[in-house]
Amino acid sequence: MLFKEKLKTLLLKSGAFRLRQMMLPRSVLILAYHSVATDWRKQADYITRGITTDADIFEDHMRILRQEYNPITLEEVSDGLRGTFSLPPRSIVVTFDDGFADNYSVAAPIMERYGIRGTIYLTVGATLRQELPWFCRTNFLFQRAKNKNIILTDKKTNRTWHLGDQLENREALVLYCHPCARLSGDELSDYVSGLESWFGFGLDLKEVRGMMTFEQARELRQRGHIIGNHTFSHCNVAHIPRELLQLEMVESNEILERELGEPVEHFSYPHPCLNPQWNDATLAETEKLNYKTAVLTSFGQVTSRRSPLLLPRILLNNQDNKEFRWKLENALAKIQV
Ligand SMILES: [Zn+2]
Predict the structure, then answer these.
(1) CA–centroid distance, residue 270 to ligand 1 (Å)
(2) What span, in angstroms and rounded, lies between the C-alpha atoms of 87 and 70?
(3) What spacing in Å lies between the alpha carbon of 46 and ligand 1's midpoint?
(4) CA-based, 20 to 30 A from 1: which of 83, 88, 140, 334?
(5) pLDDT for 41-73, tens place per residue?
(6) 271 C-alpha vs ligand 1 centroid, how far in Å?
(7) SS3 for 216?
(8) Measured in angstroms, how far is the CA atom of residue 193 from the centroid of ligand 1?
């Protein structure tokens, strides 16, 4: 372990990554964050720990981006892929999924201190209702159930999980998220309410207000950030019946355009669980909606060979400075260690 860490430090200092990057066709990295919080440990109760970044760590990331890379906007990536903009070397884009309020109150001011403009994808139904999306509710349920050591039994299979056990809890949570990812709108909300009734408790959506408002989104637009669509309900659009694509992709976009008073040109595929996260029908929908870009959660760097409607990203949360540089340098040099 120690040897690996020393090797990483050596490699990062050696200039080997930069040398290799110079030999490769130019690529861009799109970073994907979610929540950025000053009280992330508290917030991890309802927004899963893996998608919450500590504000100080986020600031370190942004400082490194400004000093050692070229932060650009998603618009510039789109222009670069279409050949109307020359992408600088070591270009990086910052994006946020879900539309949490802390993107406005915490992340945006930090980015602006370093002259960085980000892209924030709103879960439109959650923004409209000012309620956290369903996966925050299920995460809260299983977090609480862990502390209460609840035993969950699936009626159909008679399978039992001891939710006080970390691994069993995680397994049950993922399994119970599968039906949610296949549902949309009120049906999805009702399913989660049913789970909450069974557990006998649930996240108080009136009490915990974690979503950005449309007004804040409009203000971020004026400050140079980009607002994109992240569907209506945060389901997996590759796994819902075709007729529900209308609400999840088309109507959500109409609502967002109405609220922002301008065309919405960027989309992010939610990936709560289940694979894949896109298919031919969803791709056709992104084309019909005239999106300039659509991003995925799959790992990779953006090169000129990539379809602008299926762009990979680099998922980030609380990586320390070395780990952050390591992830970025590896991705830019296309070396997977
Ligand atoms: Zn999401």
Answers:
(1) 4
(2) 9
(3) 14
(4) 334
(5) 677 677 777 899 999 999 999 999 999 999 999
(6) 6
(7) helix
(8) 20
What spacing in Å lies between the alpha carbon of 179 and ligand 1's midpoint? 16
Strand, coil or helix: 318: coil
| pLDDT 10s digits, 219-255 | 999 999 999 999 999 999 999 999 999 999 999 999 9
The CA distance from 232 to 133, in Å, is 10
User: Are 73 and 32 in a shared domain?
Assistant: yes
Rg (CA), the chain: 20
Residues 191 and 154 in one domain: yes
d(CA 123, ligand 1 centre) in Å: 7
What residues does 33 pair with on adjacent strands? 96
DSSP element (H, E) containing 267: strand 266-268
Q: Count the domains in the chain.
A: 2
What burial class does residue 54 get, using C-beta atoms within 10 Å of its C-beta: 0-12 exposed, 13-18 middle, 19+ buried? middle
Cα of 53 vs centre of ligand 1, distance in Å, is 15
Sign of CA dihedral 120, 209, 58, 314: negative
Phi, psi dihedral angles at 19 (to 5 degrees): -65, -45
Question: Do the Cβ atoms of 52 and 317 come closer than 8 Å?
Answer: yes
pTM above 0.85, yes or no: yes
Task: Give the H or E element holding residue 192.
Answer: helix 185-199
- Which domain-ending residue is among 153, 180, 199? 199
CA 217 centroid distance within chain: 17
In a domain, 3, yes or no: no
